[in-house]
Design goal:
By secondary structure, the protein is of the alpha/beta class. Among the domains are: about 5-85, Gyrase A, domain 2, CATH 3.30.1360.70; about 165-260, no CATH class; about 400-580, Isoleucyl-tRNA Synthetase, Domain 1. About 50% of the residues lie in helices and about 10% in strands. The strands form four sheets. A four-stranded antiparallel β-sheet has the order 1-2-4-3. Strand 1 (about 30) and strand 2 (about 40) form a beta hairpin. The longest helix is centred in the last third of the chain and has 25 residues, at about 555-580. It is globular and about 90 Å long. The structure holds arginine. The site of arginine has 8 residues, from strand 10.
Length: about 600
């Protein structure tokens, strides 16, 4: 089905054409003076040059052709030649009926679905998730869901940091505390135990201790470095320990991501792509893209148009070790081989922008990706406390994600328990769902690239531009529909009627603009577009709700029209929050 915008443009194009002008001038934009009109067309001004005519004259001729239109009404020529207009109530009612009858809310599906990999998460194995990982998870999950709604094949990859020194540190530490374990016995030939020799909480203790020690104790640091390189060279006992670290960590990571409604299609990591590195480097050298400089292997990636310095991409250190860039390039080698994606989107802290600029350029230059493969860096800003500095615990440390989620859930529990609309055991579950919405919406409603102030008092509020406010609106609609005896869930009725009031018309119009909001969010990889849209929709609904007697409306047909509209609003809000990565509770 055509989008609202397309239907309006079609009507305008027809008028321009019959008036003797190029149809392409017939394009509408949402009015920037909503007090005057709903939409406007600036095509007459654009046509001035080509036709050598005063825009007002062109506009008047076009407006005359729109008389009696079933799509547009109140057509007026204003100012230098704007064509201002509103939609007819009939057109709008017809449009949303079609939308409601469609199981994809009139959005349609991509004609040529793309394969898109979203690289988000990036946690480092054996280290607990902390709030630094929150934004990647929340934004990446939403970008993935938006792409999926649009009809693409979306693949989320957690891209674990599972190959670095942190592994060597743990191995070195265990070799001292538990030297009798078979993993350290080089002559051991039996089967290694299936059970890990540590729990997640032990692991989370071992790592920071070992890390702190390595900074003060050079011998220990050397030991950890040696263990790291022996692990990477395939020492069997260390490989077996590594697998234990992975299993224990990944189970814990999964549980934590699950609390955020975040899940990944791929649980790959840096370790998976090490095998591609030797061939990749050899080819880069052979093709003349990489060369030795002071013992290191580098690729020049600067371009004439650069306004800031872009240093060469180092792909091998002088001691032979691979670097972060090497791993990311090798990951692209694998991704091209296994998935041949149309695009890869990296959702990572924006401070890594230069790293990705170098990696992308090196990947293009060396032909790792095709010229048409999109590489997009979606860098996000820092989560700051109310003081404007990076968010810290009260003690000044980095907050664990688990603790943070728990704190927000507890805060929500107090609120919901006080409301008395939810009882008993449901309070916990409801608090969990609402807290998740609060946390995610707070992040997503801000433009990703900007830093944002993490202010739980504000974002857990049931009023204002918050997740709970959106959920509250859905719950309110549910309760009206329930009272009406509507049990069909999202089952739809198409008894829409031309709007009878200003607030009803506004609500219908915003419903009709759903596709446009999705398009913008998708094209710009911008979940905040979805937030802004559903917030506008929720506001329009609440305004309509306060002005309208819905269930006590005596005219049955009118009432059914309201009910149909409520169902549609609910479906759109639900589709919106699903793209943001959270859900609504029954009550709250
Ligand atoms: N593990 C990395 C870090 O903690 C983030 C990984 C981001 N993704 C990537 N493909 N480099 O900084």
């Amino acid at each position: 089905m055509l989008s609202l915008q397309e239907q309006i443009n079609k009507e305008l194009a027809k008028a321009f054409e019959t008036a003797g002008y190029d149809a392409a001038y017939g394009r509408a934009v949402v009015s920037n003076r909503p007090d005057l009109c709903e939409f406007q067309c600036n095509g007459a001004m654009a046509a001035k040059k080509a036709y050598g005519k005063a825009p007002r004259e062109i506009a008047s001729e076009v407006a005359a052709k729109l008389e009696g239109s079933s799509v547009l009404k109140n057509v007026k020529v204003e100012g230098p030649g704007f064509i201002n207009f509103d939609l007819t109530e009939q057109m709008l009612a017809g449009f949303i009926s079609e939308m409601a009858a469609d199981d994809h809310l009139g959005y349609g599906t991509a004609k040529e679905p793309k394969t898109i990999i979203v690289d988000y998460g990036g946690p480092n194995v054996a280290k607990p998730l902390h709030i630094g990982h929150l934004r990647a998870a929340i934004i990446g999950e939403s970008v993935k869901r938006i792409g999926r709604f649009v009809g693409n094949k979306m693949i989320g990859d957690v891209h674990l940091g599972d190959w670095g020194l942190q592994m060597g540190l743990i191995i070195a530490s265990l070799s001292e505390s538990n030297p009798g374990l078979p993993y350290f016995d080089e002559s051991f030939e039996g089967e290694y135990p299936e059970e890990a020799p540590f729990t997640i909480s032990e692991l989370e203790q071992i790592y920071p201790e070992a890390s702190a020690r390595s900074k003060a104790d050079e011998d220990f640091r050397q030991k950890a470095l040696k263990a790291t390189s022996e692990l990477q060279d395939g020492r069997p006992g260390y490989r077996a320990l590594w697998r234990h670290i992975m299993n224990v960590s990944v189970a814990d990571l999964k549980a934590n991501y699950e609390k955020l409604n975040v899940s990944f299609e791929l649980w790959k990591g840096e370790s998976d792509v090490q095998k591609y590195i030797p061939d990749m480097l050899e080819k880069m050298e052979k093709d003349g893209f990489a060369y030795e400089d002071q013992g290191a292997l580098i690729i020049d990636v600067k371009e004439d148009s650069d306004t800031k310095e872009v240093p060469p991409c180092i792909v091998r250190k002088s001691d032979g070790a691979a670097l972060y860039a090497t791993t990311d390039l090798a990951t692209l080698v694998e991704r091209m081989k296994l998935y041949d994606p149309d695009k890869v989107i990296y959702v990572v802290d924006k401070r890594q922008g230069m790293h990705f600029e170098q990696v992308f350029r090196a990947a293009r230059k060396t032909g790792i990706v095709k010229p048409e493969t999109g590489l997009e860096f979606l860098g996000f800003g820092t989560m700051n406390g109310k003081d404007g500095k990076p968010f810290k615990t009260r003690e000044g440390g980095v907050m664990r994600l688990e603790t943070l989620i728990k704190e927000i859930e507890d805060q929500m529990y107090e609120k919901i328990a006080g409301n008395q609309s939810v009882k008993g055991e449901n309070i916990r579950e409801t608090a969990r769902i609402v807290a998740c919405s609060a946390l995610k919406y707070a992040d997503l409603s801000n433009q990703a690239t900007k830093d944002y102030i993490f202010d739980p008092d504000k974002f857990t509020s049931f009023e204002g531009n918050t997740g709970p406010y959106i959920l509250y609106t859905i719950v309110r609609i549910n309760s009206i529909l329930e009272k009406h005896g509507d049990t069909a869930g999202n089952g739809r009725a198409y008894a829409f009627r031309p709007a009878g009031s200003e607030s009803e018309k506004t609500l219908q119009r915003i419903c009709a603009q759903f596709s446009q909001a999705v398009d913008a969010a998708y094209e710009e990889s911008a979940p905040h577009r979805i937030c802004a849209y559903i917030y506008e929709l929720a506001n329009a609904f609440n305004h309509f709700y306060h002005e309208t007697k819905i269930l006590s409306e005596p005219d049955e047909q009118k009432k059914e029209g309201y009910i149909a509209l409520l169902r549609l609003v609910r479906s759109i809000l639900n589709a919106g929050i699903d793209m943001l990565g959270f859900e609504a509770p029954q009550r709250m």
